[in-house]
Fold these 2 entries.
Entry 1:
Amino acid sequence: MNQSYENAPVDEQSAHEVEDAGLRLALVDTSDADAFDGWIRADFRGFHGGAPSKEVLEESRGHLADRRTTAVYDDDAPTAEPVGTVNSWIAPLTVPGGVRLDSWAISSVTVSPTHRRRGIARALLGGELRTAHRLGVPLAILTVSESVIYGRWGFGPATFSAEWRVDTKRVRWAGGATGGRLSFTEPDAYRETGLAVLDAAMAARPGEIGLSPYLAERLIGPLKGSDHPDRFRLVRYDSPSGDPEGFVSFALKAHDDFVRHTVEVNHLAATTDAALRALWRFLLEMDLVSEVRAWTRGVDEPLPALVSDLRGAAVASVQDHLWVRILDVPAALTARRYERDGELVLDVTDDLGFAAGRYRLTVTDGAATVSETSDAPDVTLPVASLGSVYLGHDFARALAVAGRIEGDVAALDALFRTAVPPRLSTWF
Ligand SMILES: CC(C)(COP(=O)(O)OP(=O)(O)OC[C@H]1O[C@@H](n2cnc3c(N)ncnc32)[C@H](O)[C@@H]1OP(=O)(O)O)[C@@H](O)C(=O)NCCC(=O)NCCS
């Protein structure tokens, strides 16, 4: 990479597109508090959030300063606040085999409802992808508010996450003996340890990303402006030999019936099975509680095996979570490992051009080599479908049924799918 992402200039094509719409595209100087506050307010408004207080603005400025921050301005409008926002940074994405691959993380995509559907998002997203590609970043990633938006830019859903609800009056613990030590702690006291635990947990699972302090801290403790910060609790798990191996942050919601509180899990991080078991047991056996709810957990969460009555631990919903957009096919495919060997010629189509081509993927002893070829393809697929199978999720056969993968789908599935499904356990 010959240029740092923070200083990469605005994309010229995007700037022209925005100008053609009578607007102006610019990078925001995040050290200029007034300009950055306007951008942050527009971002909050874009997601229908409350107006940020002075404290929230100050905290957000501190947390988001390192991101490449882009705005669209309507210079004819009476307010100087942006009508479009986006930010991006390089995040390490864990891919199958454990490599953490530099990825272009995109967030805060908003367009003011006063300026919607005039092509602003199109200009912003195109600019992000072209900039990432220019800098040699092999893929872009995001989490989405709506699943209908990003397919048109070549993103495909690559991890799925589950919302779990456990009826704790119904189930009994069936997960065996648990050890170690559980203790209440405070976010300030635990921050440094918590960051290390999170990093280890995120490094270990394909689909997880390395977290900036902002993304990590909100998993450990509430940020300013969070709902009911006084109801927030943090419990750490340390192994019998005293090693920090996990934590759970959660809130308790009251109910008219005092024995029916609900535990809402903010985040559960565990670097060992022992920590995972102990933390789930702690949550499920809490007195005066009738339900535990947890979001963005894996579709393979072991809960059904940890309780006596598995219908008492149910998946309330499953939804797409991390979306992947491959920009450099050889770099992306050689970065991950494979659980079976094989060879495939892939014909990748890409309306935006970045990834289009025909590639021979050869996997030997789990490691891939990729070369361009003109041989007949075994599989033809759009880049969004390649993104969807990239991290190993079981999705190839469904995409083939839908006509979005053609050819030898069984061979593609056998090569790409992993025994442990990828998971992203947070939003960004
Ligand atoms: C999503 C959002 C950024 C789109 O901005 P926009 O400037 O209106 O989008 P554009 O005019 O550039 O639209 C580009 C294309 O995406 C489509 N599109 C945009 N938003 C869409 C949506 N919410 N649902 C379905 N299609 C959408 C447009 O119809 C257009 O389609 P086309 O390719 O067929 O022409 C804007 O609606 C928004 O701010 N929503 C609320 C915040 C949000 O959800 N952001 C996404 C965060 S992940």
Note: The pocket of coenzyme A is lined by residues 46-47, 109-111, 116-122, 144-146, 148-149, 152 (CB under 6 Å).
Entry 2:
Amino acid sequence: MEKGSPLSALEPEKIAVWFGHLTATEDACRRYWTLLDAAEQARADRLVNPLWKRRHIEAHGLLRCLLSPYLNQPPGQIHIKTAAHGKPFLADHPEWTFNLSHSGNHLVIAMGQHCRLGVDIEPCKPQQNLPQLVKKCFAQSEASYWQALADSEKTTAFYRIWTIKEAFVKATGRGIALGLDQCVTDPGQPGQFLRLPPAYEPPGQWRIIDLEFPTEPDLCGALVTDQARTVQEWPACPLE
Ligand SMILES: CC(C)(COP(=O)(O)OP(=O)(O)OC[C@H]1O[C@@H](n2cnc3c(N)ncnc32)[C@H](O)[C@@H]1OP(=O)(O)O)[C@@H](O)C(=O)NCCC(=O)NCCS
């Protein structure tokens, strides 16, 4: 990831990516709670698990603080609405798109202009059910590629493909109901899709960007966008 330049300099062909940890402290929650809108607060209140609730408050408060300088609006006044399948968007700034993904205490946020984008992170850890997930969510060509790999390569390869598929369905806004098995990567040519649902063709218009997190080698991440974009680290900006 390219290093971030001063905030005002996010160029149109860049996507800014922020990666960080959620502290989930009471202090952070108190700080961020008042920035959330009624819907975000209501969602937080519905979370029974106190850790998940604190993480939700912090993630959405942080998101607002990070977006604020780009949109030139105070964090608490940004209108974040939700589209039909759950994708959040900026009602007053249609030129800006953002997406976020969390996993445990990790949070990644991506933001760009005049593009569709989706982001996904997953911990790259061995799980017994990977073969079942491959059967259900991978296309035949992806499954054959994966099954032929050495056991030592399977976990990483699985999450590479999985995060790309998730980032794609998030970029479209349709979510997993679009059918992960219909969004087919080309394992031989990382960075490209082989086949996509008809509404999102041609596959060549979509870019796949691998996200690497030097401090978290066991975290796998992907960003998918429909425009020619490169990624830069989110420029440093003061948080609330
Ligand atoms: C979006 C989805 C792929 C998320 O997968 P995940 O790996 O579990 O979660 P991630 O942490 O990567 O992403 C979650 C974030 O993506 C965003 N998101 C939610 N729905 C989204 C969608 N349809 N498209 C893009 N982004 C979406 C939200 O910001 C969410 O964060 P939040 O829950 O804190 O608000 C999955 O939940 C999904 O398919 N949802 C759609 C369900 C649906 O169709 N609902 C219709 C009724 S609203």
Note: DSSP finds six helices and eleven strands in the chain.
